[in-house]
Amino acid sequence: MTAPVTARSLLAPQGLDDLLMYRLARVVRASGGMVTRLVEGGFGITRREWGMVASLYPIDEITSSALAERLQLDRVRTSRALQGLVKKGLVNSRRSAADKRVVHLSLADSGRQLYEQLFPRIAQLNTELLAALDAAQIDVLAHSLQLLEAQGRTMSAMGRVTDKADRRTGGARRPFSPAAGRP
């Protein structure tokens, strides 16, 4: 069981359970597994592919670069997932006649059918998760999430953290070096 979260503990974290991003990740882990099991086990697609299908559903066409930006994913991961969706017949893909590097995407009829079958089930899980809160708490949560997302984007745009892992050379797997740490 985790310690209760208070404004004081969030504003002056003393341990892992006091960190907002850690707590949000715990919520996702506690409830997100159901979505993963549903999309992978019930429909044969990954969560990332589901996010792409759901993002494509309300629009006629978008470039792969714009979709990657919308989903906040790098272009390589987006491209790989899109290739899988095209192979599964869920997404239509066409190269731009003007610039062969640009790929235009649209949801295939089968992708629309998938969305229409899957979205209500995921929406129901969302509703059940929010049942732990009353309407006023949900309003505060919704507003707070908007503010936190905007603040995160601002901090990121300002270059708040400049360290970057070079994953091609094992960046995340490098051993800790106290000399390399910065205050």
CATH architecture name of the domain at 46-124: Orthogonal Bundle
The number of distinct helices, counting runs of at least 4 residues, comes to: 7
Instruction: Estimate the global geometry from the Cα principal axes.
Output: globular
Secondary-structure element string: HHHEHHEEHH
The Cα radius of gyration reads: 20 Å
The CATH superfamily of the domain at 46-124 is Winged helix-like DNA-binding domain superfamily/Winged helix DNA-binding domain
Low-pLDDT sequence parts: none
Distance between the termini: 31 Å
Biggest pleated sheet: 3 strands, antiparallel
Strand content: 5-15%
The proportion of residues forming helix, as a percent range, comes to 55-70%
Order of strands, main sheet, comes to 1-3-2
Roughly what is the average pLDDT, rounded to an integer? 88
Give your account of this protein's structure.
The longest helix has 24 residues, at 20-43. The mean pLDDT is 88. The protein has a 3-stranded antiparallel β-sheet with strand order 1-3-2. Helix 2 (20-43) packs across helix 6 (109-130). It is built from 7 helices and 3 strands, in the order αααβααββαα. It is globular and about 55 Å long. The chain starts with 6 loop residues before the first helix and ends in a 26-residue tail after the last helix. 57% of the residues lie in helices and 7% in strands. Among the domains are: 1-44, no CATH class; 46-124, Winged helix-like DNA-binding domain superfamily/Winged helix DNA-binding domain (Arc Repressor Mutant, subunit A, Orthogonal Bundle), CATH 1.10.10. By secondary structure, it is mostly helical. It has helices at residues 7-11, 20-43, 47-56, 64-71, 75-87, 109-130, 135-157, and strands at 62-63, 91-95, 103-107.
